[in-house]
Amino acid sequence: MKKIDKSLLPDDYNTNKDEDGFYAEFYEDGQLSHYGFYSDGELDDRWAIYLEPDGNGAFVQRTVTVDFAVEEEKDSNNGHHPELTPEEEEEYEEFVTHWVSRIHEDGSAITPRCSFCEKTSVEVRKLIAGPTTCICDECVAFCQEILSEETAENEDD
Ligand SMILES: [Zn+2]
Question: Cα separations (Å) of 151 from 17, 68, 69, 143, 155?
Fold first, then answer.
């Protein structure tokens, strides 16, 4: 069984989840166990891959927060038997390679953040994007508060 190890990964990954960016986890024998893009110690709404030990299968998953609902998307290639045929082995490696590069492409794109408080879409309920900036629902609420206070003060004059 051909081992899926770090040689399959682009080399700009961390092994510490708390560092923002690509994160990779390995089994003791060096086989890849998990790869994904982390920010603030957590996976955001991007794809991540999880591998069973000994090349026994892999699945990818992403959780997307859309307004107030959570949607999950999945894809998998499960061997679930120790001896894969050469075709299955090749298929498995292609599956992992495909998803690793997809995750890399996806993660290389800039994460949209609120221009005021720097939170990402997973940290707030809604992130509204303008042509060059973004604002989150929390900052909108805060601005509304300021504006209504000012209006109230002006009315007092
Ligand atoms: Zn904000």
Answer: 46, 31, 35, 12, 6
